[in-house]
């Protein structure tokens, strides 16, 4: 089969991902082999490209967001059969979805929403699972008076977080964005308010605060000194990026909770992996009900040059929503 691969970790100027012929994926007892119809790009892709090199003579295949058709099922697989259309995010420790076929644990997958094509569906799993785990699996309670701030509302995770909050809670949702196109995007996703970087001043202008939850998807380091000021006592900060330092002491006077989210934790540690498939099944129902829509903004043609373009856009932070690639 064909896949986009590389051998040595590298930076963008030395981009060496190429379309090559590779071995077919091996089917484990709890695996399905999926014919990948489309995959999408995430920041984790370029971070792994910068740090992971090949071993055991197997090249690195990136990509952890895909939609496709089941071709084979392992002996212990339940609920799926050949011909099923599915979508999933996969396991960071296994070969990824920049390939024509991929083996993935059946507990991580769900049937693709029938109303979405493969490219639209491939844009959703990783970001939706990230947002759901950060906002709905940490014991946070939302009431009609709740207010949630999503920092980085136009990004892949922010885009779906806004939609899930609007679909599943009565909370007021505020998002940060600064460019006209990203402000418009956040509003299209359902944000009640869109603000810039001066969080305290703009929340005060809106008459909103203190907040119940801050979901920081980007530039957390810049906002850490401010976040304790804008959260209510016993409020919550959920974080997905990697601040260089995190001084927890300012969070103590208000007894604030800090939740770190890493979507691959469940699959990497075999910790209730079936809940990811279950969450994607619930997401499909929300999509079919018209409560959530795809965050895909563009579908690229399958070529190494287009893979490089996607990585460049992710590293530069110039893209909003999600980029997909169809075979």
Give an overview of the whole structure.
With 327 residues, the protein is an alpha/beta fold. The chain folds into 2 domains: 2-124 and 272-326, Quinone Oxidoreductase, Chain A, domain 1 (Alpha-Beta Complex); 128-260, Rossmann fold, CATH 3.40.50. Helices cover 30% and strands 25% of the residues. It has 11 helices and 15 strands. The chain has helices spanning 43-51, 118-122, 125-136, 156-168, 180-189, 199-206, 220-223, 227-230, 265-268, 274-288, 304-316; strands spanning 2-5, 18-21, 31-40, 66-73, 85-88, 101-105, 109-111, 147-151, 172-176, 193-195, 211-216, 231-239, 257-260, 296-301, 322-326. Strands 3, 4, 5, 6, 7, 14 and 15 form a 7-stranded mixed β-sheet that branches. Strands 10-9-8-11-12-13 form a 6-stranded parallel β-sheet, sandwiched between helices. It has a two-stranded antiparallel ribbon with strand order 1-2. Helix 3 (125-136) crosses helix 4 (156-168) and helix 3 crosses helix 10. The longest helix is centred in the last third of the chain and has 15 residues, at 274-288.
């Amino acid at each position: 089969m064909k896949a986009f691969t590389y051998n040595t970790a590298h930076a963008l100027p030395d981009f060496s991902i190429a379309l090559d012929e590779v071995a077919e994926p091996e089917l484990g007892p709890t695996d399905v082999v999926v014919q990948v119809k489309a995959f999408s790009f995430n920041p984790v892709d370029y971070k792994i490209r910068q740090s992971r090199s090949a071993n055991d003579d197997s090249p690195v295949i990136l990509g952890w967001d895909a939609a496709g058709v089941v071709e084979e099922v392992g002996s212990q697989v339940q609920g799926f059969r050949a011909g099923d259309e599915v979508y999933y995010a996969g396991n960071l420790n296994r070969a990824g979805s920049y390939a024509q076929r991929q083996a993935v644990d059946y507990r991580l997958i769900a049937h693709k929403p029938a109303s979405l094509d493969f490219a639209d569906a491939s844009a959703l799993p990783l970001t939706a699972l990230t947002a759901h785990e950060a906002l709905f699996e940490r014991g946070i309670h939302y009431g009609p008076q709740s207010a949630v701030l999503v920092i980085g509302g136009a990004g892949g995770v922010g885009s779906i977080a806004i939609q899930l909050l609007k679909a599943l809670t009565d909370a007021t949702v505020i998002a940060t964005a600064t460019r006209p196109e990203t402000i418009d995007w956040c509003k299209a996703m359902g944000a009640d308010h869109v603000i810039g970087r001066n969080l305290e001043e703009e929340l005060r202008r809106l008459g909103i605060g203190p907040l119940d939850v801050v979901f920081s998807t980007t530039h957390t380091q810049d906002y850490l000194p401010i976040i304790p000021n804008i959260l209510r006592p016993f409020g919550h900060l959920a974080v997905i990026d990697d601040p260089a330092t995190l001084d927890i002491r300012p969070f103590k006077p208000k007894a604030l909770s800090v939740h770190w989210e890493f979507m691959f934790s469940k699959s990497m540690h075999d910790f209730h992996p079936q809940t990811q498939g279950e969450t994607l099944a619930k997401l499909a129902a929300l999509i079919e009900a018209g409560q959530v829509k795809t965050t895909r903004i563009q579908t690229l043609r399958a070529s190494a040059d287009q893979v490089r373009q996607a990585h460049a856009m992710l590293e530069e932070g110039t893209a909003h929503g999600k980029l997909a690639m169809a075979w």
